[in-house]
Description:
seven-stranded mixed β-sheet
Amino acid sequence: MAHPAFRAAAVRVRTPATSANLGPGFDALGLALGLYDDVVVRVADSGLHVDIAGEGADSLPRDERNLLVRTLRTAFDALGGQPRGLEVVCANRIPHGRGLGSSSAAICAGLVAARAVTTGADSRLDDAALLELAAEIEGHPDNVAACLLGGFTLAWGEGAAVRAIRMEPAATVVPVVFVPARPLATETARGLLPQSVPHVDAAANAGRAALLVEALTRRPELLLPATEDRLHQDYRASAMPESMDLVHRLRADGVPAVISGAGPTVLAFAEDGEADKIARLAGDGWTANRLALDTVGTCVLPLTGAGQ
């Protein structure tokens, strides 16, 4: 493969927050949310410069250890070679370590930005290859599928390949996220999962996951039973007891609520007229946000207004 040529102009990439699992759809279902990180990448003459504002500004590395930078490097390798230098500016709004897909956002931003600044990259790294590379870096495909495609997604594996389809969530569904002050590492939450589960629980989850596709796309009145889970949430409860208590309280009031991804954020589904009321139910210790559904996914935007 010939060494690639790079565009001189900077590119701006926007990536949405995501919520994975959505109750029963463990490592398969994902939803893109209207909360965004913006990244501007420019190929420079030499060196690496990373500027970070917003979430993670005080903790994220500004060198080759940065996940976004590592993803850029991986993508450039796949495209045939590294640029001489890079300038990266991040405006982060997605909370870190809360189960809202901040790592997937960084990965998808890096892959799309690398492709956008590389001449002829679409033929070398098409959308299918982009998804597979994102899932390889992340370790599972649910968040990255939703982040790349937007909307409501179902991801699965076929041998070594990763596939995903995008569905249109019902327009009347309003996500409400309850974000706690303390983060939880995904590795910690995954470490609490057992190697096997009872057959009856697996069968129950299969049925609820299938029902969730119908509920979230066409029949939101079924979201409460459709979001019931037996595979992961209760096993992780010891790492986030306050989150599980909030899930149980909301569900007891008839509100479809789940742990977002690996937690500890709680995601609830509301109708438009009830969203603000539901947002007030958590009490102290939570930041409640009513969000839109993202329908675009990761995209390249004009540089004008990049700081907005």
